[in-house]
Write a structure and sequence with these properties.
single chain, 21% strand, five-stranded mixed sheet, 5 strands, alpha/beta
C-alpha cells in the first residue's frame, strides 16, 4: 500500500489532495501519511462516519441522504465536492460504503462501496462490490480509491 500511496503523491506533486472517508475511518489518510514528505501534497481529510458529519461538515444535502442513503453515488460525489471546497484543494477523493456486518435499509449488501473523485476538470463516482471480511473490504476500498486518483492523474 505504501508504494501505491507514493505513486499517488508523486503524480500529484505541485497540487493538493484531500479525503472524505466513511467506512475506511481515515485509512486513506493513514496510507498517504506513511510516506515521507506526504504533507507536500496531502492536506488532510474528514472522517465522516455518520450522516451528521456528512451533512453538517461536508455539506451533503439532507435530501440526498434521505432519498439515496449514505451509501450511494450522489452521497459519494457530494462528499468529494464538499471536502474539496472545505479544504480548498485541487483534488478530492471520498469513500462511503458497507464493510459489515450487515447491509443497509436501501438494499445495499455488505461490500458495496462508492468512491468519489473530483478535481477542477472532472467528477466521477465508481461503484464497487468487494468481498471478504470487514478488514479486507476496507483495505480493498483504500486501494481502489488510490487507484482512482492515479487513473485521473497518470
Amino acid at each position: 500500500m505504501t508504494m501505491l500511496a507514493s505513486e499517488v503523491l508523486e503524480a500529484l506533486r505541485g497540487r493538493t489532495l484531500v479525503t472524505a472517508e466513511s467506512l475506511t475511518g481515515g485509512g486513506i489518510g493513514a496510507a498517504l501519511t506513511a510516506v515521507p514528505g506526504a504533507s507536500e501534497v496531502y492536506r488532510g481529510g474528514v472522517i465522516s462516519y455518520t450522516n451528521w458529519v456528512k451533512d453538517n461538515i461536508l455539506g451533503v444535502d439532507g435530501y440526498i441522504l434521505d432519498q439515496f442513503g449514505a451509501v450511494s453515488r450522489p452521497t459519494a460525489q457530494a462528499m468529494a465536492a464538499g471536502v474539496r471546497r472545505l479544504m480548498q484543494a485541487d483534488v478530492a477523493v471520498s469513500v462511503t460504503g458497507l464493510a459489515g456486518p450487515g447491509g443497509d435499509e436501501f438494499g445495499n449488501p455488505v461490500g458495496t462501496v462508492f468512491i468519489g473523485y473530483e478535481d477542477e476538470n472532472c467528477a466521477e463516482v465508481r461503484c464497487c462490490l468487494f468481498k471478504g471480511t470487514r478488514d479486507q473490504i476496507r483495505t480493498q476500498t483504500i486501494e481502489a480509491a488510490l487507484n482512482l486518483i492515479l487513473a485521473h492523474n497518470p
